[in-house]
Each structure stands twice: as C-alpha cells, then as structure tokens.
Sequence to fold (379 residues):
Amino acid sequence: MTDRTMLDKDQVREIFVAYQSAPDEETKLLHRERLVEQFIGLVEFLARRFRNRGEPIEDLIQVGTIGLLKAIDRFDLEREVEFSTYATPTIVGELKRHFRDKGWAVRVPRRLQELHLELTKFVSHLGQELGRSPTVAEIAEAANFTEEQVLEGLEIAQAYNFASLDAPITSDDGGTTSFADQLGGEDEQLENLEYRASLAPEMEKLPERERTILYLRFFKGMTQSEIADRLGISQMHVSRLLNRTLMHLREALEDET
Amino acid sequence: MDTIKLNIPASPAYLQVVRLIAAGLATRLRFTLDEIEDLKIAVDELSAYLTGAQGRDGTLEIRFVVHDNKLEISGAGKFAPGQKVRTDLTELSRMILHTVVDSASLQQADGAPVFELVKSKA
Fold:
C-alpha cells in the first residue's frame, strides 16, 4: 500500500474545489487520484465487511472503489456533510449490487441469493451461540424461514462464485494475512505427509487453501465448522471450497480410467 | 423405518435431487448442518463412481431408508450393456468416506454397481 497522509477536512475540501474547477481533464484526474488515495482506506474498511461471502477482498476493494469514484463525482461541496459520510452509502451500495448481480457463477434467482446470504449470517451466529453446528430446524427458527427454504439455501451455496483460493484473507483486527501464516506448523506437517503422494497425486496440484481444507477435514478429522473457525471463514464457504475440491478430484479420477 | 425410492437419469446433473432428498430426510432426524454436509459429500462421492463425470446411458435407483437415529442410502446403476464402471474405491475416496459417514461400500452386485452408506446422528 502506498503511504497515506491523512488530510484534514479543509485540505480535503481544497482538493474537491480544485477537482471540480479543474481546467482540463488531466488536472481533474490528478485531483481525483488524490481523493481516491485519501479515501481508499474507507473503501477497504467497508469491503472487509463483505469478506466472508466468498469473494476475494481485492475484487471487493475494486468494486468499492467504483462506488468511491461515483461519490467523488457527485459530491456537492454545498452540502453540510463530510465526504466520508456521503460516500459510505454509495460504496456499500456498489458492493451490495456486486453480490446481487455478479457474485454468482450461475444465474440464481435473487430470492435465493438473498436467502443464501441471510443463511450464512445465521449459520455462523448460531454456531457460535450453541458451540456446535446448528440443525436445520434451529436455523429455520432463528431466521424465520421454513426448513425447506433453509435446505434450498444450503444447496444453492454450490452455485456461488467461489473465492480465489490464493487470495489473502482478512483477520478480524483488519490486518491481512495469508493462509500459510494462519496455519503455521500445520502447513509444515502438510508438506511432510508421507502418504499424500500415494493417496492422490492430484492433491499435489491443488492450491494451498484447498489442500489445507481437505487435509484438516479428512486427515485431521476436523468438522467444517471447526475448519471455518480456524481459518476465519464461514462454514458455508468451507463447504463450497470442499465440494469444489472434491469435484475436481473426482474429475481427475475419471481421466485416469 | 420408512423407505423412499427414487429413479434418476445416470447424470451428475440430477445428483442435486439426491442431495436435497438426503438433506431433507437428515433434517427430519435433526442432523446438524455439519452432519448434513458430510452426508451430501458421501452421496456425491459414491454417486460419482456410478454416473462418471459425463453421465451414463441408464438410470440410478436410489433408496433411502430412514431409521430412528440414522439414514441408510443405497444406489444401484442400471446401465445399458457394455458400460464399464469401476467399483474399487480409491484410497482418497475411502479416506473421505471414512471421515464423513459410519460406513460406505461400493461393489458389483448381480452385474450392477451398487453403493451403500449409513450415517447416524451423533
């Protein structure tokens, strides 16, 4: 990340004035660039709030930046609000739209998309509350859905556009860290698995994150919820990644015979 | 003990229906979400051997048996003659199945590939 000097309200206002009264396009873009630099932190902050929904954080920041540009473009200095207050709903709106329209690998009716996003929330919340994986009945009750709706929502999770596996993940304190960092010693063990090669040469080719989840689930016997906690992602995301990995492995199996 | 039977074309595209029924029945037994996910993985893993990645000419006969505390699922491939289906589970498949269900098997029975699995509630 580039070095950012935080400007105060008046300085920001000055750039806005310069931006809006720029004599030519080039100068205008230059000022806009400065404004983006100034508020990219806000975009990152807001993007991180959507990080557990299966999209790479870099993509979310890009989407959020589009929102920021729109806000910069439309900001009226006559208004009595600070720019960050003005820009927040625009950026969030852009992020939400991204999930609604582009976040799905397969076209899924909006009703189901929303159902799915709702469910992800309730599943992790309930899991923490109960200290175990919730039942469908419990989720249905908490979310005020029917059991059938919950089942439907869980099944369509597989249609969701998966996160890039090598993407850095974001921890709760806002710092970014790679999967390898979080796993520490576990990863070394993973490298030393004697039986790995004999089990499936295909496993070698998997991205680190997929291999890790596979390893934790099937070699260490951790549940999906436990893996989710460990890696700081949602259980439903673990489910998606796991299912996709297994699908790959099955296809590889097919090629062999 | 209740039994549900389902015939689907032997194509991966229809496995979703099997998963949904399995999940629905598991829900009746108050399985947790983790257990349901495990069950679906097992269904997918075993069914993949029967359908192959591209699907086959024929049908899968799936049978769900609901017990008080466990679910038993079996599937038989009824294919046009001459289709070779492997029934030896890979080491990885064994490992996966061992982790997610109580028991699982795949074998030839009366000339048809058949899988069976049992998953009980913790």
